Queue: 2 jobs
Job 1
Amino acid sequence: MDGYQIIQQLRPILTGNEVIVSSNGNISRQVYHYLPQPQVYLRGSMGLPASVGLGVALARPEKTVLVILGDGNLLMGLSSLTTASYIRPENLRLLILDNHEYATTGKQATTSKVLNYDKLFEGFGIPNIETINLDDSLETVQERLQKLLSSSGLHALPAIVTSQPPKLSNIPLHPEEITRLQFES
Ligand SMILES: Cc1ncc(C[n+]2csc(CCOP(=O)(O)OP(=O)(O)O)c2C)c(N)n1
């Protein structure tokens, strides 16, 4: 399954009480185009989605904060996982869309193929939902996404995805506007 198909699968299970923080590039564009607006669309800040998600989770304790990030972003900001685990906000969830590449900038390979997500998250002390794999059925994908959102406390869900993102236009919002829309809603 492509990352954007996974993002689309979220649509029917969102309750309206979530804030989504999406990583820069394709993922933010997909979240902007396929999921209800407004969300926190990062347009830069590569490596920082989990840190931003942690901040939003602390600022909005009444919301479930779902961070959706690519493997390039995860690898660039790995240290943020220790902070998230240490502070452990009840309302923070991480969904990793791992296509083994920097798809946004021309499909250069990342190093994520060597990652063992079970051990990685175990090491960081973050409970993870069983990884979504390429050949998983739609039902399995939906079940794991549902589990991520409904599990209590900090959880992560890695998803291995193929890379065929649709060409999507840029998000027509300035970062300051994105922040304002979020905190006014
Ligand atoms: C510090 C920094 N380095 C590089 C970039 C350029 N850049 C923007 S998006 C991106 C790829 C992000 O990769 P990933 O998180 O795996 O998401 P994907 O594009 O595969 O969906 C890169 C390298 C940047 N914005 N900031």
Job 2
Amino acid sequence: MDDPYHIDVMYNWFKYSVSKAPPHVINKKEKRKWKIEYIEPYGRCTIATQDIKEGEVLFVDHPVVTGPKQTSDVICLACYRRLNSWDDYQCSKCGWPLCGPDCEDKGYHPLECNAFAASGYRPRLQDFDEAQYMYEAMLPLRCYSLSKVEPEKWQTLIAMESHNDLRRGTELWDREQTNVVDYLLQRVKLSVDEELIHTITGILDVNCHEVRSNIPGTRDPYLVRGIYPLCAMMSHFCVNNTHHTLMDDMTMVVIASTPIKKGEQMTATYTHILSATTERRKHLRYGKFFDCTCARCSDPTEMGTYFGALRCSQPGCGGNILSTDPLAPTNDAPWACDRCRYKVSAVTVERLNKMIYMELRQAGEEDPIKLETIFKKYQYVLHPQHFHLVGIKHSLSQMYGRVAGYLLPDLSEAQLLRKVNCCRDLLQVLDVLDPGITRLRGLTLYELHAPLLLQANRAFQNTTITKSNFLQQLREVEGYLDRTIYSLKHEPLSSFEGEICKIARNSIQELRKWIQKVETLPETHFLPEKQEVVPGHLSEEDLTLETLLKKLEEQ
Ligand SMILES: [Zn+2]
Ligand SMILES: [Zn+2]
Ligand SMILES: [Zn+2]
Ligand SMILES: [Zn+2]
């Protein structure tokens, strides 16, 4: 068949994924809204064939295979439950740790179980240089086994990019040679070409998604990795237009996070949205083997957010220090002030960011005061929307109200206000860098609603608020809860976000009842409407010319 870019293979995977998906997730009769095209330098891309609305389901993606991460605790290879020890129960056929006999034939375990059983090799802890790497060969072995037992899955997998040419000779390649290739060839005695195993590990390095396993009946999800061919096909952009959600059966559901116009690419982000250009580009270069040149990476201001900018310290300048060439291949272009051209080397900027990073790590996520201290220390060195300051605000937005000693009812007015402002500032950055439907937006809106509701209710109890103002504030909170639900409604109930969505649904019902009640309350429960518009008490000294003239006119 004439399919050099394996486009038909991917269409087949789409059909297969739809057939495997639970009916409530995707309308199986609905036509596909996108097509696959091969475009340099992206490779296979997914392109909208019609205008797509925010929130519309684009596709479901069934995993080709899942398995442990490169470094892992001792887990059950069938259900991914974390195990207490290496030898509580070992599979009667292959000797690997499992929960018990029930798991021997479950999940993807039979793929490696049969290979180990056939080889006669029994795993021993001392065979691994480091215990944390003992599962590194497991997912590659599962992939290889697919070639024998599930040719269609294998065809889909092997059609993916491995970047062997770019990986060869790197530290990563050497580690995989020891932990995967040598292990499988010498211990498990697979008779297979070394290069093919490297191709598999490459496909895994380039394309794997880290996913949360979901173990029914427990609250102990464990991070594993999986191959999702349709997700992996979407091009990377540092501001993207899709959102993916992992269902309990490990199916991925991908929706449009913002509207997508006909002819536009559907895009995803393979790196951390809330890091600055240099960090993102390095991560993509070393982890995914390409140099990102997207609109955000090309713009020294990162779309006007100044996410990596420093404040110029030259007297009276007030400019921002930005990279003079954010796309420089080795990320070493000098940085310069956008007003006075004062220069700082890229190495200095990197050192500063690293130093702050270390301080933040040391401060931890338990004590907001430690973070406030770091914030104060750097607030005049970094742009107010610098990623470290936004990161601190993100942490504070969650710590105030959630950590011991700072639960919501314990917070002072100033701390409540700080929580509110941290949420608002974070949302402002997210509107640009991570627009539309996202988990972080949903969670932040939820964090924002709580202190506002508390403040409004406190003012009502103390009769320091007018009825119209109180109702206005309650409706604002209702709006935030509504947006929380909108942003998180795609998340499975078993996840943290799904749980927050459920709580928000209950809260909004309660709030709507409260608003109805407040509407019927007599004015005597509130501050009189007129009184509030007077800006405090004016003393004799506060008299302005305006008020003086008015007084004279009244006489
Ligand atoms: Zn198990
Ligand atoms: Zn087994
Ligand atoms: Zn980029
Ligand atoms: Zn300057």
